[in-house]
Design goal:
Layout (H helix, E strand, L loop, with lengths): L1 H17 L5 H6 L11 E7 L2 E9 L4 E3 L2 E2 H4 L3 H13 L6 E8 L3 H19 L4 H4 L32
Parallel strand pairs: 3-5
Antiparallel strand pairs: 1-2, 2-5, 3-4
Helix pairs in contact: 4-5
Length: about 160
């Protein structure tokens, strides 16, 4: 009987150890900032087929996407506005230098992926911002994607032209 209680206490201690945060998401849930040795926070954002890797650190507000300035990479003002939305909502615009590597999809999907990544990186850096960003929908990955083409059809839903005769 004593052996059973000992094994139960061992099991309990392993469960307690398992609850310590291992990933950035776990650390953010427990309210602890997750930064590397250089003081940066990292997060991944996704939208459609685009994936953005985002690093943020305190700075002058520069955003660098794939080695280019934000204005050069996202030429349309709408895309730049989408990228900056989480910073403006959290009232942190101009306080962080952001370095982004984005791949896949088109420019619109990439802008959405960068927005998602910046939101998640802000929470990793400063977990208190979750209450501001969550209601704005910045933490939700947009599930919309291109529908696959079905066999027997020219596109996903389009049918061939009907001919009566």
């Amino acid at each position: 009987m004593a052996e059973e209680t000992k094994s139960f206490s061992d099991l309990k201690s392993t469960l307690i150890k398992a609850k310590t945060p291992d990933t950035a998401a776990d650390a953010a849930e427990q309210g602890k900032p997750n930064r590397d040795s250089k003081g940066r926070a990292y997060a991944t954002g996704k939208r459609k087929n685009a994936v953005a890797r985002v690093w943020i650190k305190p700075g002058l507000g520069r955003i660098q996407v794939n080695g280019k300035d934000e204005k050069d990479y996202f030429a349309r003002p709408v895309l730049r506005m989408i990228v900056r939305q989480p910073l403006i909502a959290a009232n942190r615009d101009g306080q962080f230098d952001i370095m982004v590597t984005v791949a896949g999809g088109g420019l619109s999907g990439q802008a959405g992926a960068v927005r998602h990544g910046i939101s998640r990186a802000l929470i990793a850096y400063e977990p208190g911002l979750r209450a501001v960003l969550k209601p704005g929908g910045f933490l939700t990955r947009d599930p919309r994607a291109v529908e696959r083409k079905k066999y027997g059809r020219p596109k996903a839903r389009r049918s061939f032209q009907f001919s009566k005769r």
